[in-house]
Amino acid sequence: MIDFEIMNQFSSLESKLRRIVMAFELKKNRLAEVERENEELRKNLAEKDKEVSELNKKLNEYIKNFKKSEKFTKIVSNNLKSTGNTAELKEKLDEYILEIEKCINQLSN
């Protein structure tokens, strides 16, 4: 009779151990999935950070260029007041264009 109880307890422990091992394997697999997902999310975050950095650089360039264009607009509007007719205005604009082209050529070389 004692052997029967021992066998019953052994069988019960064996069953519990199998369930624990199965639960462990499930948790281990889930952990591996979560780690892969985490790594993928980290890569995506790094890419997005890089994109944000590039966009910030572009934004700063646009702001800088916009400020330059504001200055150019002020120069032109001030000179418009001083020029009386369209012929003089065209001549002034041609001078500005030539000056800008010279600057571009110097920057290119």
UniProtKB/TrEMBL annotation:
<keyword id="KW-0175">Coiled coil</keyword>
<feature type="coiled-coil region">
    <location>
        <begin position="24"/>
        <end position="106"/>
    </location>
</feature>
<protein>
    <recommendedName>
        <fullName>Cell division protein ZapB</fullName>
    </recommendedName>
</protein>
